[in-house]
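Hi R.,

Here's the chain you asked about this morning:
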Amino acid sequence: MGHIHAKPASNSSDQAEPHRLDAWLYNRKQSILTSFGYSTNANTNTEIPPDNIFIPIQDDDILSQVPIGRHHPVPRQGVEDDDTRTMHTNKFYANAFLEEQNQPIWTHPYSVWWGKGVESPNLLKSLGLCISHVEESDLEYGPGDPASSYINPYRKQCLILSAADLDQSTLLTTDTHLPFSVNINLSISSSPHEPKITFPLVQGMSFVTAGYRDAVPTIQTDGKGFVDFAGPVNVGNAIKYHVKDMEGKNWLVYVNVAQGTNYDASKFLKLDPNTVVGPPGFKGTIQVAKNPLGAEGEALYDRACGGFVTSAQLTAVVNENRGTYIFNYSKVGSAPLLMFALPHHMQSLDSDLRNHVTKLQLRTTTKGMATAIWTEKLSLIESNLPTTMSFGPWTAAQPTNKPRYAPEVLLLIGAVAKRDLRRCMTDPIPPESFYYAGKSFAKFATIVWIIKDVLNNDTLAATGLSKLKSELAKYITNSQLHPLFYDDTWKGIVSSAGFTDRSADFGNTLYNDHHFHWSYFVYAAAVIAYIEPDWLKENDGENKTWTNMLVKDYAESDYNGRDFPWQRSMDWWAGHSWAKGLVESADGKDQESSSEDGWSAYAVKMWGKVIGDQAMEKRGTLQLAVQARAFNNYFYLDAANTIHPARFIPNKVAGILFENKVDYATYFGSAPELIHGIHMVPISPPTTLLRPRQFVKEEWEAFFDKGRANVDGGWRGILYANLASLDPRASYAFFRDGVNGFWDERWIDGGASRTWYLVWAAGLSDLMGRR
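And here is the predicted structure, written out as tokens:
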């Protein structure tokens, strides 16, 4: 397997000082800021509340049975950070260090990409950073009514920030890779150690800021060139220009000269219709922003110019049913910080920030309108957390009640459970795929839980539990067909199958879908530990350590973690996870299974609950609430949805949500039961939280009522189990009686069971009947 070595355990709290990350950030940013003329300290210290839930899970420790090596098939392109630091494989800026490095990065409301000197009939050749903002009128729609997709125009060059110094030797590098930010550098061979331009990119930034070092700055636009480039105007210490791009859209350009520099920023002149050039020897920053709000918007940008955001750190506190999570921004400069917030942010905005909201809005590509807010701490509140959710059916309307099952219902469940358990104990766990193996383990574990807690059959439960533990032990000892491997290049646990076939197991080795794959195992382990707590102590605690390792791979909570990046999968700013890992993509990150995203948070919640890790349980609980809000803005499209274009909303689900497009489709087929069902599976306790009854009603009536749910295969079971959120009696009747008294086991997919669907539908019928 290549280079293999031991990775000793390290104590997360002792491996460095408590503020090791702050110190590293401070030193990194000071060197960057000084190089393009800022002497002002960047405020990198975040006030960490004493009850912050983002704290270490356990000591870093890769188990001895997991090989470690550095031969990942995807190389790190242009990464300047030390190779001992963790890398964020699934964050918004991954295109910058993958393959050609010139696919777009979406910070919202802007997208940016490196021109790389590419010659194309539809592009202005440039070596600088291209900046795009797209209006809804620019969208391109797929066929059909409703439209099968919509996509934002590819590589629209509204403005380009570049330098005449850049030549064909120009390289793009990245540094300071953090969960919500990264720095993009453009360097030339004559000065490789000091980039000519650095772009600090942060999600929600109001300006695109370029820091120049002794350069000849240029500003460009595509097409027929600038409709207008007017100025200069003095704004404090900055020089402002009014710009109309190639389409006549209004932009503002601010030139901030480094203190002590003799530079005339009023001498930016048109070189040709597409290019404005400044005098040579520029040291300082150029900031650009689109202004659709006229004089009122300009006044906002005037107030904010000269300062810029460099990074963000998330902290969160959960008290009973209320969770508060805060994006703590680091900035440079004395000007107040203007940041854009997404629609789900605005819905949960802390009331103390309401008077900081402005009228300035810009459209994002797939997340509706972003709203500008004055804040260095974006504080968001979820006030109705699903704290009582456990292993059984649950509804927000009856959060503290357990379902009651009639005797005849229990008799049916008991008979079906015996048959389902027998299948689990005789059918092999699918060996080729961690995804399908995980789903089988979760199904098995759920049946054992039902026999134990719903049927109160301890003897039968013990029989099933013994087999479940022995099967999972093969994975814990890494004895399965494709062993796990710790990848010390990108820092994570991956399937070894992808070293010979990158596409194996849905690209697991490329960090695709880790929150889907590992969460099924985490859930199964939670059930085992719930029924038999001593399992956590077996083999010197190896069962617990192994499961924690999987949690840490996709949901690490320690900013100073050595072995895994912080929250690999979940994008807390976007409100949901991204499934795409180390795959270059012209449309950015994407996710097609919102429900499995929610399941991944639920698994974290339940694992934290059974091992007594209250911070972990709270993180999973808060994440579920955030996801429920985000899903019902961006993935689930009820009649009141204003996020997506009107021509797309009747589809009811996003299908695959990308950063640049939305495609009513799946990666594995185009039938409605696939497109909608992948946003249902697995039917589980968080289903009723994530998928509100009104949405389920609209979706069912639009696509599945009047017999249209009677599809072939396991998707039929998924659709009817989903129906339980709307009409649990009809759902239960299907799983009890089948069709005209005939039951076909093929109606249940490999990750579910008829046993669970009966418990689910009957449980919801009781809970919803108590209203």
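One quick note: DSSP finds 17 helices and 31 strands in the chain.

Cheers,
M.
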